[in-house]
């Protein structure tokens, strides 16, 4: 029984470690998002200072700004979804831990097959959460490229 309890504690600690890691990634994404938002605000202020740009060029700038804002909103939505999924994972882990603890208290030990299946389910859930930050990172990198391109265009237009 002690061996099983140790195994359950180790498993719970592993899940909590992974959860903490995901929360750290979320924090990094939030910081990156704030950085990109700050850059966007700076670029928006540059747009307001450009007076000698033709209306066609201004329309292009406005469209680019709308695209960047749409991308920013999309990233914010993805971040919110990731936070919600994190909360759901925490609830699932808590529920499963309570269920396992209750089984141990009533001396209803889960079979090794049940434990293996439970472990596989948890591993699959964690894998889903680990892929999402990677996708968000790729979106951030694409967005940074758009911001750099936009910045280059603004500088070129100023030189005209």
UniProtKB/TrEMBL annotation:
GO terms for biological process: metaphase chromosome alignment; mitotic cell cycle; regulation of G2/M transition of mitotic cell cycle. GO terms for molecular function: dynein complex binding; microtubule binding. InterPro entries: Cenp-F. GO terms for cellular component: chromosome, centromeric region; nucleus; spindle pole. Keywords: Coiled coil. It comes from the Eukaryota. Residues 19-78 form a coiled coil. PANTHER family: CENTROMERE PROTEIN F, CMF/LEK/CENP CELL DIVISION-RELATED. This is Centromere protein F. It comes from Chelydra serpentina (Snapping turtle). The lineage of its organism: Eukaryota, Metazoa, Chordata, Craniata, Vertebrata.
């Amino acid at each position: 029984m002690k061996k099983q309890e140790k195994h359950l504690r180790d498993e719970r600690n592993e899940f909590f470690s992974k959860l903490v890691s995901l929360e750290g990634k979320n924090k990094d994404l939030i910081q990156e998002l704030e950085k990109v938002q700050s850059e966007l605000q700076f670029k928006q202020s540059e747009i307001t200072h450009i007076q000698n740009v033709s209306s066609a060029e201004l329309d292009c700038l406005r469209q680019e700004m709308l695209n960047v804002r749409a991308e920013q909103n999309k990233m914010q939505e993805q971040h919110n979804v990731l936070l919600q999924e994190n909360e759901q994972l925490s609830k699932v882990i808590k529920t499963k831990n309570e269920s396992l603890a209750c089984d141990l208290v009533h001396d209803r030990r889960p079979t090794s097959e049940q434990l293996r299946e439970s472990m596989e389910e948890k591993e699959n859930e964690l894998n889903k959460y680990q892929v999402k930050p990677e996708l968000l990172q790729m979106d951030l990198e694409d967005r940074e490229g758009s911001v750099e391109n936009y910045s280059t265009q603004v500088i070129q237009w100023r030189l005209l």
